[in-house]
Specification:
- This protein has helices spanning 2-26, 37-44, 48-60, 81-86, 99-104, 109-124, 131-139, 144-156, 172-177, 180-196, and strands at residues 35-36, 64-69, 88-93, 128-130, 160-162, 167-170.
- The protein folds into two domains: 2-95, Aspartate Aminotransferase, domain 1 (Alpha-Beta Complex), CATH 3.90.1150; 100-196, Arc Repressor Mutant, subunit A.
- It is elongated and about 70 Å long.
- The protein starts with a helix and ends with a helix.
- Helices cover 60% and strands 12% of the residues.
- 18% of the residues are buried.
- Helix 1 crosses helix 3 (48-60) and helix 6 (109-124) packs across helix 10.
- The strands form two sheets. It has a three-stranded antiparallel β-sheet with strand order 1-3-2. A three-stranded antiparallel β-sheet has the order 4-6-5.
């Protein structure tokens, strides 16, 4: 009887903590969505990574995931609790958007293409590029009047950031939502297919 009661109590405890994690992750509390590891640790306890794993398993059924972004976009192979405390956690899509779902986010296909071009260009240049270089590249693909508007939109949405020297860099949302390596590979593959048709 006591073992059964202990299991129920533990199950209730985990359910309450996971519910609290959902509230922290789904609702924006700061300028940036998501939540820092130290905030999760403070609210959920030091075993918050275990809670996030359980939550991630539940979200898999909904094609969502808990995504971990480390400081300044660093990649950490075997993160320690210290790394996780400094990281930011988001809820993102697990799979890819299809064309119908992409329409629902309210962006035109050429806006999304411009974003892909900007991100892949900045990635290929090591992560920081003068704004004027990105504008010049986008002017080859988009009408002039859309370029400045789109760059502002990409920055307001958190995909690109700009420093005091007018250098563009990949911001938090790119690091959270976009697999940059896969994007570059897709672009290279598409480029190879285009050249095969020549």
């Amino acid at each position: 009887m006591e073992r059964k009661q202990a299991r129920i109590t533990r199950k209730t405890f985990y359910a309450r903590k996971i519910k609290e994690a959902v509230h922290l992750l789904f609702f924006q509390h700061h300028r940036k969505p998501g939540v820092k590891g130290w905030e999760l640790k403070r609210r959920l306890g030091s075993n918050y990574p275990k809670m996030l794993n359980i939550l991630d398993n539940y979200l898999e059924k909904l094609d969502l995931q808990v995504k971990t972004i480390f400081e300044e976009g660093k990649t950490v192979e075997k993160p320690t609790l210290k790394h996780l405390d400094k990281a930011r956690f988001y809820i993102t899509l697990r799979g890819d958007l299809n064309s119908e779902e992409a329409k629902l986010i309210g962006w035109r296909i050429d806006d999304i293409a411009g974003l892909a071009i900007a991100i892949s260009f900045i990635t290929s240049k090591g992560g920081v590029v003068p704004r004027k270089d990105v504008e010049k590249l986008l002017r080859n693909k988009l009408p002039d009047w859309r370029v400045d508007m789109n760059i502002k939109r990409y920055m307001q949405s958190g995909y690109l950031g700009e420093d005091e020297n007018e250098q563009l860099y990949l911001d938090w949302r790119t690091r959270a939502e976009i697999d940059q390596k896969e994007l570059v590979e897709l672009i290279l593959t598409a480029d190879l297919k285009l050249h095969e048709g020549d």
